[in-house]
Amino acid sequence: MMTEVHKLLPSKWRQILNNNYQLFKWRLQKKDHRFLPRGSSNFKTFYNAKGKEIDTAKVLNDLLENGFAVVTDLYPDTWVNSAYKKVMRYVGDYRKKKIPESSLSQDKFGYDKNLLNTGIIRFYNVSRKIKEAGEFANNEFLKYIGELYYQKKLKLHTVISQYNQVSKIPCRGYHVDSHVEEYKTFIYLNDVNKYNGPHTYLKGSHKLTDKLVSKLFRAYTAHNTDVSDEEAQAAGFEEVAITGKKGTVLLIDTRGIHQGGTLLKGHRAVFNTYFYVGKE
């Protein structure tokens, strides 16, 4: 079956569609949100922890072009070290069974029971216990970029901490988080290299929703947001493993295809915010 949208796609997409037509759901994108000229000077001014002005235009353009952006030195090392120590203390309490259960839908601090025995220790509503988590969740610059990106007001849903360690159970593979306009920010609380689980993104894959096609692969059906390794490879996007020193901040459009890197050794600790389009 050939559709008008189908005819507009490059040959590699047409071949994938021909082979897997029943797995794909298509819709035209109503608007392209690439709304700001490069180098625009009409931005608020923000400074990093070292007193250097942040290049807001570059951060926004990276997010628009790649689906992710990276900011360094947003917080001083003393702040990052304090946050890390507190997360590790709660990880220790969790192992001693001193932490209650919670979930993304609950408004209380606690661990995610669905991740038991996976090597992942996730705490919801962590700002109730760790002040740095609340400061990160309410960072004006990070929210400002997200609202420029979507040209809509964003509402903070929650902030979590997550501790990943080596496990025999593999991390979730490539996926998209959802099909709604979602914006996430991460901060690495310890150094992250290629061995301890860098966030990995298929560069530019968010553009599938910005132009013609908003639902591609099995990941773009209503009930399955996973993308197989074969589909990810066939898509032809560059895979970027985002490594960085402690304090590195990631801004992510989670409608793009991504995964958490597999931990081969060591561990990784982060704060992670969830923002959605909506009124304050």
Task: Walk me through this protein's architecture.
It is a single chain. The protein has a single domain, classed as Jelly Rolls (Sandwich). It is globular, with a radius of gyration of 19 Å. The strands form 2 sheets. Strands 1-9-6-11-5-4-3-2 form an 8-stranded mixed β-sheet. Helix 3 (56-66) packs across helix 6. It has 280 residues and is α+β, with helices and mostly antiparallel strands. The chain is built from 7 helices and 11 strands.
Mean pLDDT: 80
Major pleated sheet: 8 strands, mixed
Number of separate strands: 11
Euclidean distance between termini CA atoms:
44 Å
Query: How many DSSP helices?
Result: 7
What fraction, in percent, of the residue positions are helical? 10-25%
What general form does the structure show? globular
The top level CATH class name: Mainly Beta
Q: What would CATH call the architecture?
A: Sandwich
**In percent, how much strand structure appears in the residues?**
15-25%
Structural class estimated from helices and strands:
alpha+beta
User: What are the segments in which pLDDT stays under 50 over at least 5 consecutive residues?
Assistant: 1-10, 16-39, 209-222
Radius of gyration: 19 Å
